[in-house]
Amino acid sequence: MKKITKNILIGVGVFFVLFFTVGGYFINKYYNEDVKSHPKMYCYQTFYGPANTVLMIENLKYRDAYVEFYDKVANGENPTFDFPLKTMPQYSPVYVMGYTDDGVLADVVSYYDRGISNGGSYLRGWVYAKTLHKDPPPKKKEQE
Amino acid sequence: MIRADVNTLHYYYPFGQEMPGRSFNSNSYSYGFNGFLKDDEIKGSGNSYDMGERLYDPRIGRTPTPDPLMSQNATWSPYVFALNNPIVFVDENGEWPGVTFMFFELDVGLGLGYGLNYIRQEGIAWDEVGKTHFTLVSAVYIVNQNLEEGSSHPQFVLGASIGLSAGITQNWSANTFREATESYSAAASTGKPSVKAKFGIGIEGSENSFTLSGGLQAGFKFTRLNTSVEFGISLTDKEASVVNDATDVISESWILNNQRQIKDDNGNVTGFSGTVATRNTKGELIDTGIEVFSGTTTNEDGTVQSNGSYSSKNYQSEATKAEDK
User: Fold this and answer.
1) A107, β-bridge pairs
2) For residue B119, which of B111, B108, B103 has the smallest C-alpha distance?
3) Distance from the Cα of residue B75 to its chain's centroid
4) What is the mean pLDDT of each run of 10 residues along chain B (325 residues)?
5) Which residues in A lie closer than 8 A to residue B145 (C-beta atoms)?
6) Which helix (H) or strand (E) holds A107?
7) Which residue among A20, A82, A116 sits closest to B115, beta carbon to beta carbon?
8) Using the beta-carbon criterion (under 8 Å), do B114 and A28 form an inter-chain contact?
9) Residue A90 in contact with residue B303, Cβ under 8 Å?
10) What is the CA radius of gyration of chain B?
């Protein structure tokens, strides 16, 4: 009985080692390849005229407040909002993983390197679908 | 051949008192122990120093007046010098050093390079200017790691631990919360590579900070994690008092209200603003009207980044002065 328990423990240990070293590598590799096989687009809004960064939400519990906010922004208003402040990089591409059933929000991944104090080089969240564009935004100098 | 004249020569006891018969001063040099300005007129040579913010008597290792920043730390006497440990610490100006963080922390992690780790710290930080309510999050999953592609900010988890704890971090390299969180050298267990081994009580140290925490934590792991300020409001002491006085709830509750984009005349979003609110015992929202603005940075490619952290104009201007010290 003790021998069986010992073997189970060794088996579990080997499984974890293999899972995280080999499995982790392949999960990461194939996930990133899968992300990059999705449509590549740029996320920015031009509702105020020039291209501006877009706010994003990471949790769909803020969906209603977020959609209401951007519906108003799309009408040229500058409304208040009460969801956490996070921005999606505008000059590097995002990969569109999917949309909500009504197509209002898009699930996007960004590999823009925001630095160690802003969360690193991976960001996934929901953005207003109308803020996705095929072409990158003009550079600020070009806009001026 | 160059000839140098000796202006001053001193042997000191640890707290800065001059050793009798082992000192020489030509009186043409006005500085002594720790580079402090000597104030010899009142108590005699080497017995009183001007540290900048207050005087210091090295014979008793105490200051005659309290630390101007004594409100940052209630656990130490405001009259001590260099936290009573002048061998380890250097007291540069007589003020309580750096930034003090008090936090609750949830930390769950498991991995061998690739892995899973979630750290959430919620707490309050005191700095030279005022006070900050903050939430820091470090989240690593296998899918957001980038170890094989030579990422400039790779994250890894080596080991396993799980725990819920409370702690205090003292960072003495930064004067403000925003300065401390720019590199995250202050934040416990986040940012820099760190070793964590907690069994009831945890101790962490780095060149810039020291953390003492206690709670239920078991495991052992090495981590290197990227952190985000998920939420932050920084106010001066005076503004913090206004918010805390506006509620009848004992525990402090700072809520962001009326967040809005700030635009310039051309329609470019240049930042974000909001007001600070609190709640009373009935749960009603009380807006104090104190305006705060988010810290945004514009990267080389023009991308505007917000770190989710807000601060008042007064805090920002005072913090700039404090960081320039």
Assistant:
1) A98, A126
2) B108
3) 17
4) 81 89 78 85 84 86 81 74 78 75 90 89 91 92 77 79 86 83 53 51 68 78 83 93 88 91 89 93 92 83 81 93 79
5) 24, 28
6) strand A105-110
7) A20
8) yes
9) yes
10) 24
Single-letter amino acid code for the residue at A128: Y
- Asked if the C-beta of A116 comes within 8 angstroms of chain B's C-beta atoms, the answer is yes
Residue B201 has what pLDDT? 64
User: A5 — contact with chain B (CB < 8 Å)?
Assistant: no
**SS3 of residue B65 by DSSP:** coil
Chain centroid offset of residue B212 CA = 14
Tell me the three-class secondary structure of A6-53, residue by residue. Answer: HHHHHHHHHHHHHHHHHHHHHHHHHHHHHHHCCCEEEECECCCCCCEC
Report CB contact under 8 Å: A80, B306: no
Choose the mutation target among B299, B304, B311 for the interface with A, i.e. most A CBs under 10 Å: B299
A81–B contact, CB cutoff 8 A: yes
- Amino acid identity of residue A33, one-letter, is E
User: Quick one: angle between helices B313-323 and B237-245, nearest 10?
Assistant: 150
Task: For an interface test with A, give the residue of B116, B140, B144 to mutate (most A CBs within 10 A).
Answer: B144
Does the beta-carbon distance from B145 to A114 stay under 8 Å?
Answer: no
ipTM of the predicted structure?
A: 0.85
